[in-house]
Design a protein that fits this description.
This protein is mainly alpha-helical and 92 residues long. It has a single domain, classed as 434 Repressor (Amino-terminal Domain) (Orthogonal Bundle), CATH 1.10.260.40. Helix content is 43%, strand content 9%. The protein contains four helices and two strands. The protein has a two-stranded antiparallel sheet. Helix 2 packs across helix 4. The longest helix is centred in the middle third of the chain and has 13 residues. The protein is globular, with a radius of gyration of 13 Å. It starts with 8 loop residues before the first helix and ends in a 12-residue tail after the last strand.
């Protein structure tokens, strides 16, 4: 998990893709407007810190783990958390 609880638009899109979520699904789970998600992912807005925390919390609750930047991953990354042997999630 990223210590500063901030993500880039690219990490947001990537996390959604891993989960198979639409912008609307993320917006509903984070309790923000879909246009906020869309505009953020396009780099058209810089959401308030609270909005970013809500997006991160929703994605983490869905099973995403954000990786901090390292030497080989300069902008950080995202992975799906190991689910302790549970059945894989089925995408709609």
């Amino acid at each position: 998990m990223r210590k500063n609880k901030s993500i880039t638009p690219e990490l947001c899109r990537g996390a959604r893709a891993i989960l198979g979520w639409s912008q609307q699904q993320l917006a509903a789970r984070a309790e923000v407007a879909r246009t906020t998600v869309a505009d953020y992912e396009l780099g058209q807005i810089a959401p308030q810190a609270r909005t970013l925390r809500d997006l991160v919390a929703a994605l983490e609750a869905g099973g995403i783990e954000f990786l901090s930047p390292t030497e080989n991953v300069s902008r950080g990354g995202v992975i799906l958390k190991w689910d302790n042997g549970a059945e894989p999630r089925k995408q709609p």
